[in-house]
Amino acid sequence: MYIYKVVWRAAGEENPLHVRDKRPPKAIARDLVKDGYLVTEAVAVRAASSAFKDEEGNAVQEDFFSVAPVGAAVLVASAVAALVEHVVPAGAEPMPEFPA
């Protein structure tokens, strides 16, 4: 397995910078962190709502969420001012684990 990435240079040069690496992604990430980069995971958010009436006839709505990895991103640590994550809807609870 290898990683192949084409990166356009910020200086506006016409020629792209080609990067190839045959190490496993985990080894690449470990070495990037050692060199001062942040390696973060991109995730897909799954949300679900459930509405029902309780025993007393009151309407009840529940919101749930879960996340699943879909990829990764590499950031230059010295260039990151702040990391802000918004993945949980207000009032949501973790997605319940259903027995298989």
Would you give an account of this structure?
- The strands form two sheets. Strands 3-4-5 form a three-stranded mixed beta sheet, covered by helices on one side.
- It has 100 residues and is mostly beta strands.
- The chain has one helix spanning 25-34; strands at 3-7, 17-21, 37-53, 59-76, 93-94.
- Helices cover 10% and strands 47% of the residues.
- It has one domain (3-94).
- It has one helix and five strands.
- Strand 3 (37-53) and strand 4 form a beta hairpin.
Descriptors for this entry?
mainly beta; single chain; two-stranded antiparallel sheet; 100 residues
Q: Largest sheet at a glance?
A: 3 strands, mixed
Instruction: Write down the domain tally.
Output: 1
Residue share in helix: 10-25%
- The ordered H/E elements are EEHEEE
The count of DSSP E runs of length 2 or more, i.e. the number of strands, is 5
Radius of gyration using CA atoms only: 21 Å
Concise description?
The chain has 100 residues and is mainly beta.
Fold topology:
Elements: E1 3-7, E2 17-21, H1 25-34, E3 37-53, E4 59-76, E5 93-94
Parallel strand pairs: 4-5
Antiparallel strand pairs: 1-2, 3-4
